[in-house]
Amino acid sequence: MSLVRKLKPDRSITGVIIPFSIVPIFGLATLFFGLPVGLITLGVWMWVYSLFYLFVFIRTRNIAQLVICIEGIFFGFMFLVFEPNFGTNSVESQEFKVAYISGVIFFGLILISLVLTRRLKWRGREIFELAGESVDEAGNGYTSRPRPVGKVEYSPQQMHAFSRFCGRHLIALTYVTSKNITLVPIKMGEEFGRLLGLSGDYRDATWVNFDVNGEVSVHIAQKDYLDYREPLAFDQLCTSLGQVFIDFIELYNKGEGVRVIDRMDDLKLSFFS
Amino acid sequence: MDFQTAARYASLLSKDYAEDIFRLLVNYQAISASEVATRLNLHIKTAQDFLEALEQLDILSKEEILEKKRPYYRYILKQTRLLIDIDLMQVKREPSQNSLTSFIREKENAGARFSVARSDDYITSVTIWTGNGRERQERKIKLTTLQGRFLYHLPFPKAEPLTVDVIMEKAGIDESLAPEIMDMVQLLEKYNVIEALPEVPK
Q: A130 or B95: which carries more pLDDT confidence?
């Protein structure tokens, strides 16, 4: 199967910068205040990082986030234990080395597995690729208005269950009100801003909304629209994005949620994009 | 009575001295502008303008008096009862069948910003920019819920245009409410947010 990408290649490094900011922070803290302070900074930073992933886990119920959180707690703890005993026999003891190395191997393997199985991957790009797949006509016509795209005949309970499924598999971030369930697809690297509330109101982002009556409406942010290589017919793109989620909810309610994941995996997008 | 005449009545009646002048007019058989001015301590021009305006509205009549080669007017009250009666339905704009069947859609690159209601099923306001260069100004148009629902269902730019009545049907708006919708459509057409197409483009 030939894979024709509708989106421009992902050259954003935001998603990498934030976790790897730990390196210069450690370096600077060590340079200015010495290695013990550097190690404490590293440990505290790991815990802050863990807190973020704990928050993501609570928000999405994605187990992989909990694993990253535990990993951060473990390494943070190791750094903080390491600091007061630095240069002493206890750090150089076999027990410490075993605990540290076994931790690195265990969490390293889990992390690699989570990355390779895309369980840590926010699926925004897959969603946009799927939406663009069926749109061949170029025509632009962008508008910031949302578009009603159809109706689904599901109960609010079924829609809530689907939204939890979307959150659990990082397909979209869900925002639930008494009348609406709004799904906001997040691309890798955008999760920090969106989850920490730094990216503004979610209603300015791209979203698919299901109201209590099953009416489905779609809004595509201009930034996401410009991420397509070609100016796709906007009307069709909105319909297609809505249809992607309508297909997903149908598959999910037939008990074939795994097919949703398969459809996205079949796109074979990079693990980090 | 039309709006303009009613506005002239209202403007005259709102003057501080209006009641005093009418009191004089009611109690005097005829009175001149200078007599009114001196009696009420007004400027002669103020009294003159007021009486002239009443005369133009046919509330007073005037007769020219020639005295020592210098003519002047004396004003006589013609009506002892003033009625401001405006039929508000005269400003109702009933949409023509033509306007309801005209094809419309959002205009491409309109540059308008649409704010969506929390419930995500109607538009609350449209922000447009008017003027050019340093004169450019932002103008926010608040919409009623009905208008917002209509705009929510308006076809996108480049999408197949729809007639006004079809969009109203999609939005669940009764045809009797068309004047409210047409008012907004005409306004947004004026600001190039909506384009009307004479017929469906093939």
A: A130
Q: What is the DSSP string of B151-195?
A: HHTSPPTTSPPEEHHHHHHHTT--GGGHHHHHHHHHHHHHTTSEE
Cβ-Cβ pairs closer than 8 A, A with B, add up to 58
pLDDT, one tens digit per residue, over A181-202 is 999 999 998 888 899 888 888 8
Q: Is B116 within 8 Å of A235 when comparing Cβ atoms?
A: no
Q: Examine the domain organization and report whether B123 and B167 are in the same domain.
A: yes
Pick out chain A residues at pLDDT < 50.
1
Query: Which residues of A lie closer than 8 Å to B, measured between beta carbons?
Result: 139-148, 177, 179-180, 182, 203, 209, 211, 215, 217, 219, 233-235, 238
Using one digit for the tens of pLDDT, what is the confidence trace for B131-157? 778 888 889 999 999 999 999 999 998
Nearest CB among B108, B118, B153 relative to A141 is that of: B108
Nearest-by-Cβ selection for B123 from A145, A180, A235: A145
What's the pLDDT score for residue B199? 66
Using alpha carbons only, give the angle A238, A239, A245 rounded to the nearest 5 degrees: 95
Query: In terms of residue numbers, what domain contains A236?
Result: 124-265
Contact assignment for B116 to A142 by CB distance below 8 Å: no
Residues B147, B193 within the same domain: yes
ipTM, two decimals, is 0.70
Same domain, A128 and A257: yes
| B2 located within any domain | no
Higher per-residue confidence, B109 vs A216:
A216
The answer to whether residues B63 and B141 belong to one domain is no
Residues B104 and B73 reside in one and the same domain: no
Domain count along chain B: 2
> Are residues A145 and B108, on separate chains, in Cβ contact within 8 Å?
no
By the 10 Å C-beta count (0-12 exposed, 13-18 middle, 19+ buried), B55 is classed as middle
Partners of A145 on chain B (C-beta within 8 Å) are 106, 114, 116, 123, 151-152, 154, 156
pLDDT for A15 equals 72
pLDDT in tens, B167-198: 999 999 998 889 899 999 999 999 999 998 87
How far is Cα B37 from Cα B48, in angstroms, rounded to an integer? Answer: 8
- A241: its two tokens: 């994005």
Q: Please give the residue range of the domain that contains residue B147.
A: 94-197
Handedness of CA A53, A54, A58, A61 (dihedral sign): positive
Total domains, chain A: 2
Mutate to test the interface with A, among B108, B118, B121 (most CBs of A within 10 A): B121
Cβ contact B106–A238 (<8 Å): no
Query: What does the pLDDT read at residue A21?
Result: 85
Task: Give the CATH number, domain containing residue B164.
Answer: 3.90.930
Are A141 and A231 within one domain? yes
Domain boundary among A86, A116, A146: A116
Provide φ and ψ at A61, rounded to 5°. 65, 25
Report pLDDT for A51: 94
Boundary of a domain, candidates A116, A134, A165: A116
- Distance CA(B32)–CA(B93), nearest Å, equals 44
